[in-house]
Each structure stands twice: as structure tokens, then as C-alpha cells.
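Hi U.,

Before I forget, here's the chain from the pilot set. I'm dumping it here mostly so it's searchable later in email.
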Amino acid sequence: MPYLTIGAYRADAVFASGLQRGDEPSAGQVRQAVAAAIRAFGYSGCAERVAQEFGDHPETAVIRMRWARAVAREAFADSVSAPTAISPSVMVAPGRQAHERRRHDSGDQ
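Structure:
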């Protein structure tokens, strides 16, 4: 599984959030929405929502992702000096990590 930058995860979280382009959210609102989406869905859950939308509505998903990337980049411009990669092991939603660990430890696949 490839490593993604923190910017990619943030864009996925904006995409999965309830923010709308017409709301013209502030940087603070974007940061709060990213944190809430990651808490609610986990990194992988945000990515799953993006994938679902690209499968169901590719023409509108492209537009939303362009907006999400731009908004996330602007909102976090001061907080990231260099691209940071996140290991795939942290992608599991917080509530699912323990479940996945138990399943792995018990030999269930």
C-alpha cells in the first residue's frame, strides 16, 4: 500500500466532511472539519467515502476533490513545512484499530 502525504489525508477529510464550497469556510472551520472527519471516520473511512463518491458521481467528485485539496492546502499552509508521509498502519479508524488487532491476534483473516 502506498504512503500518502498528510495533505492527501486532509483533502480526503475535507471531501468527506459536511463543508460545502458555497459556505466559503474559514481556515479554522476547515481545520475543525478535518479533525472531526478523521475522528468520526478515521483516515481509511475518509478515503472510502471519497472512493464511493468517485464511483457513484465521478463528474462532481472531481470538482469537489479539487476544491477540497485547495481548501486543505490553504488552511494548513503554516502548519506544514515539508510533505509528511503517514504509514498505512495508522489508516484504520480509531475504533477499528483494537478490533483489527484482536482479529489479527486470534488468527481470523
